[in-house]
Amino acid sequence: MLLLDDVQFLVGKEQTQEQFFHLFNDLFQKGKQIVLTIDRHPNELKGLKERLISRFQSGLIVDIQPPDLETRIAILMKKAENENLNIPFDVIEFIAASIKEDIRSMEGALIKLLALASLKKENITVDLSRQVIEDIIGQEALSQLSLNQISTVVARAYSLTDKQLIGKTRTMELVKARHIAMFLCRELTSSSLISIGNYFGKRDHSTVIHACKAVEEKIHKDAGFAKSIKTIKNEFN
């Protein structure tokens, strides 16, 4: 099997591309597995030979996104298990919710937390982990709510999963929870309507506007509903 990372770095390297073309053909004809990673769709590469692009497109192209909160938690729990560490779940959840894009940084935060707890001779807590996270991403970034955090809290309030909330299913209960999540994302973050729509299953920004208006109207008309929204918002404090 050939595993090759960062194929975009072949752009502009004529001789390297030529050699790789022959290597690719040789392995392909022998029925070998070839796995390539790249930071964009092959069609968007400029400076790569057309015959290479066509071969890349002949295989299965998969868009790999950053892992969701549940996956990040699972990664940290597995890391703790492999290292035989006893880390409280609320600490693991806090780290996973704070660092979203870089798995190495997330695992590094866990190692720094263990070192700090050992140095200070303190228990591993959320407050101690906050110090570590602030050093990594900064206090301002840590204090900002993310769409993922809001989605997770709303999903939990309605006994749903994150995947259900951002999915395509349109049962009454799901639509209600999804509208509330969109409304809170609009109110509690600086994210654009387009960003919020994209997060919730690549929906149009007009869908977000409709959701926000529907929730606002119900808050004014239904005291019980307004109270439930306030209860959810209090969780972010």
Brief overview:
This protein is an all-alpha fold.
How would you describe what is shown here?
This protein folds into 3 domains: 2-57, no CATH class; 69-143, Helicase, Ruva Protein, domain 3, CATH 1.10.8; 147-234, DnaA protein, C-terminal DNA-binding domain (Chromosomal Replication Initiator Protein Dnaa, Chain: A, Orthogonal Bundle). Strand 1, helix 1 (14-29) and strand 2 form a beta-alpha-beta unit. The mean pLDDT is 86. The protein is flat, with a radius of gyration of 23 Å. It has 13 helices and 2 strands; from the N terminus they run E-H-E-H-H-H-H-H-H-H-H-H-H-H-H. The chain has helices spanning 14-29, 50-57, 69-82, 89-98, 103-120, 126-137, 139-143, 147-157, 162-166, 172-188, 193-199, 205-221, 223-234; strands spanning 2-4, 34-36. Strands 1-2 form a two-stranded parallel sheet. It has 237 residues and is mainly α.
